[in-house]
Design brief:
By secondary structure, this protein is α/β, with parallel strands linked by helices. It contains 6 helices and 7 strands, in the order H-H-H-H-E-E-E-E-E-H-E-H-E. The strands form 2 sheets. The chain has a 5-stranded mixed sheet, with helices on both faces. Strands 2-3 form a two-stranded antiparallel sheet.
């Protein structure tokens, strides 16, 4: 019995040596800049707060008529981003996950954020959005460290806190905007 435990311990150590050797090989193949990317968390946090603020405090002000298409809300949010001089990518990047392509409405490379805008404009849409958001989280987390969802509601979500709380984590924010 002791001999088998000893051999298991040796095998575990050999596995650890293999993992460390693979890491060393990776370090030798790549340059320092490919491996280490410095983050300025103060500036990044500030930009994330700015984006959340645009969604929560400004988006409703620039959407004058009740939107009928998600694209209308996306265009309004894009105008806010341009006005705030925030760098972003619209409709990208394409992320293949589980034999399906996912494309965030907006992405922000500097803060590692994918942002989706959803419109709740008809009965039953709330439940559909829950499924869509769960799918998006699974796909986008393969590429991004932070996720945001802006839900523009025309009065169909009764309990916005309950809706948002089911998704909220440290790396995910949900903003429900009422028209």
């Amino acid at each position: 019995m002791a001999n088998r435990e000893h051999q298991g311990f040796i095998d575990g150590l050999n596995h650890g040596v293999g993992v460390l050797q693979a890491g060393l090989d990776e370090l030798e193949r790549k340059s320092f800049s490919e491996i280490y990317q410095s983050k300025d968390t103060g500036k990044e946090s500030s930009q994330l707060i700015k984006i959340i603020g645009l969604a929560e405090r400004k988006l409703r002000k620039v959407v004058r008529a009740v939107p009928t298409k998600e694209r209308e809300v996306q265009d309004a949010f894009e105008s806010l981003l341009v006005g705030a001089e925030i760098q972003y990518t619209r409709e990208g990047p394409h992320i293949e996950y589980s034999s399906k392509n996912y494309i965030p409405d907006f992405s922000f490379d500097r803060i590692d954020l994918a942002l989706e805008i959803k419109l709740c404009v008809r009965p039953g849409r709330e439940k559909e959005m829950i499924a869509e958001i769960n799918d998006d989280i699974m796909a986008y987390k393969t590429k991004f460290g932070n996720l945001g969802f802006v839900i523009y509601d025309v009065g169909l979500i009764r309990d916005t806190d309950k809706f948002a709380d089911q998704f909220s984590r440290d790396d995910i924010f949900i903003a429900v905007i009422k028209h």
